[in-house]
Specification:
438 residues; alpha/beta; Rossmann fold; 2 domains; nine-stranded mixed β-sheet; two-stranded antiparallel ribbon; 11 strands
Length: 438
C-alpha cells in the first residue's frame, strides 16, 4: 500500500471513530410520544405504574395481557372479583368488545379505562359524552389541575403541565354515574379567550342570552366560562355486580408524573378497584412495537443501527483498498505434453506386430546413440576402444558392461537381418545400462 492510500485510509478511520464517539456521547432527545406500554421507560410509558401495581394491589396477582381483549375475555369467562385496566391516549371499543366487557363487569368485576376520549359503542352504552371543543388546541398543550372527590382522601389538587389535555364529560347518566374526580383548565396562554371579548360582562351576556348556540361567539364564551369552572373527568358507572371507571387524564399514569410527585393521585384513583386479580392491557397501546422484519428491528435500535452502519462502512473500505492490492488469480496453464515417447512406442509396436525386427533393431541402436550424444556429449561415429573407455568413465558404468553393450551393437550392425531374440537381448542390455545410471 502506497503512502497516499495509507493517508486516505487513516483519515476515513479517524472520521468513523469521531462519528462513533460523538454519537455515543450525544444526549438522546427525550421521546414524548405516547406509549403507555408496561415495559416502556419513556416519559409517557407505563413502566413505573406496572412495576408498582403489586404495591397498590397488595396480595393481588398482576398479569400483563398482550392479546385482543375479546380473546382474553372469552378464555376467562368465569373469573370474578378481578380488575381489567386499560390506559392509552386513545381507546375505542367496538360492539363485540363492548358486549364482552359488559358481561365481564356484570359478574362482579371492574374495568378501569383512562383515555383522552370516550366514544364508540361502550361510551354510548354507559351514556358518556366527552367535550370536543378546545380553543387552546392551536396554542400548545393544556395545563390542567385535577382533584379527586372523596372525603377519605386528602383534599389536594394535582397540576399536569406537560402533555396534558383538557377533557371532561359534557353529559352522563346522573342516576347510575358517580363523580369521582374534577378537572380545571389552566393554560400558559391565559387571556387568549378573554381577548376575544371587550369586557367580562359581554361574556356573561352572550352565554345567558337566548342566542344561537351554534354561533361562534356563543361557543367561545361558553368555552371560556366552562374552563373557569371545575368539570367532571373521572366517573364510576355501575353495571350489574361490578362497575366501569372512566378517567380522562391518562398522562397521570405515565412514568413522567409518577416520578414527579403525582403517585398519590394514581394510588387513590385506583383504590376503588377490586382486590382480586389485576389484568393490565398491553395490546391496545400507541407505543406497541410491531417488528415486521429483522432489518426493521436492527434499524429501530440505535446501538444495532450504528453497528450495522459501521459494518457496511468496513466492508466498503475493504473493497476499496484491499481489492486494489490483490493480484488477480493467475490461471494454471498446463504444459504441452511431450508426445515423442508415445509416438515412438506406437511406431515400435507397429514394426513389432509386422515382424520387421531388423528395422526395430536399427532404430533402437540409433535412439541409443542419440541419447549418448545428448547426455554425455560423445562422438558416436567410431565405436572403438577409446570410445568405450570414455563412455564408461562418463556414465559411471564398468568397463566390462560398457564393452559388452557396444560390441553387441557392432555385431548387430554387421548382420543384414535380425530375429526376435536378438532384439530382446539388445533391449535388455540398453535398459540395464540406463537403469543402473538412475
Amino acid at each position: 500500500m502506497d503512502k497516499r492510500s495509507k493517508i486516505i485510509l487513516y483519515a476515513l478511520g479517524a472520521i468513523l471513530i469521531a462519528l462513533f464517539v460523538l454519537e455515543s456521547n450525544r444526549p438522546k432527545p427525550v421521546n414524548w410520544s405516547p406509549s403507555y406500554t408496561s415495559g416502556d421507560k419513556v416519559p409517557l410509558g407505563s413502566y413505573v405504574l406496572y412495576d408498582n401495581l403489586g404495591k397498590i394491589f397488595q396480595g393481588s396477582n398482576i398479569k400483563n395481557i398482550d392479546k385482543v381483549p375479546v380473546d382474553f375475555l372469552i378464555e376467562n369467562d368465569t373469573i370474578t372479583d378481578a380488575t381489567y385496566i386499560f390506559i392509552n391516549d386513545y381507546l375505542f371499543f367496538d360492539k363485540t368488545e363492548t358486549d364482552y366487557l359488559l358481561k365481564f363487569v356484570e359478574r362482579g368485576n371492574k374495568v378501569f379505562i383512562s383515555s383522552n376520549n370516550a366514544g364508540g359503542p361502550l361510551a354510548d352504552t354507559l351514556k358518556l359524552e366527552v367535550s370536543s371543543n378546545s380553543f387552546y388546541a392551536g396554542g400548545g398543550e393544556d395545563t390542567i389541575r385535577t382533584r379527586l372527590i372523596n372525603k377519605s382522601f386528602e383534599d389536594r389538587s394535582y397540576v399536569y403541565h406537560r402533555a396534558g389535555a383538557y377533557r371532561y364529560f359534557e353529559s352522563y347518566d346522573t342516576l347510575n354515574t358517580k363523580v369521582l374526580g374534577e378537572v380545571l383548565a389552566f393554560n400558559p396562554g391565559s387571556g387568549y379567550l378573554e381577548s376575544l371579548f371587550e369586557e367580562k360582562e359581554e361574556i356573561d351576556a352572550v352565554v345567558d342570552e337566548e342566542v344561537d348556540e351554534e354561533s361562534y361567539a356563543y361557543t367561545k364564551a361558553r368555552e371560556l366560562k366552562t374552563r373557569k369552572t371545575p368539570q367532571v373527568d373521572y366517573v364510576e358507572v355501575k353495571r350489574g355486580k361490578g362497575a366501569f371507571y372512566y378517567n380522562l387524564n391518562p398522562v397521570a399514569y405515565s412514568n413522567y408524573y409518577m416520578l414527579n410527585g403525582k403517585q398519590q393521585y394514581v394510588a387513590e384513583s385506583l383504590s376503588y378497584l377490586n382486590k382480586g386479580d389485576v389484568y393490565f392491557d398491553d395490546y391496545g397501546k400507541s407505543g406497541k412495537k410491531v417488528v415486521t422484519s429483522s432489518m426493521r428491528f436492527v434499524l429501530s435500535d440505535p446501538s444495532l443501527r450504528w453497528a450495522y452502519y459501521i459494518a457496511i462502512g468496513g466492508v466498503l473500505l475493504y473493497m476499496i483498498f484491499v481489492s486494489k492490492r490483490e493480484q488477480r488469480i493467475v490461471p494454471v496453464v498446463k504444459p504441452l505434453e511431450n508426445s515423442t515417447v508415445e509416438f515412438t512406442k506406437t511406431i515400435g509396436n507397429l514394426y513389432f506386430q509386422s515382424g520387421d525386427f531388423t528395422s526395430i533393431v536399427e532404430k533402437k541402436i540409433t535412439f541409443f546413440l542419440e541419447r549418448l550424444r545428448s547426455s554425455y556429449y560423445l562422438n558416436t561415429e567410431k565405436l572403438d576402444s577409446a570410445f568405450i573407455k570414455r563412455l564408461a568413465t562418463k556414465s559411471g558404468k564398468s568397463l566390462d558392461q560398457t564393452q559388452d553393450l557396444i560390441n553387441y551393437i557392432i555385431n548387430l550392425r554387421a548382420k543384414p537381418l535380425h530375429n526376435e531374440n536378438e532384439l530382446k537381448r539388445l533391449n535388455k542390455r540398453i535398459d540395464a545400462f540406463f537403469k543402473e545410471n538412475k
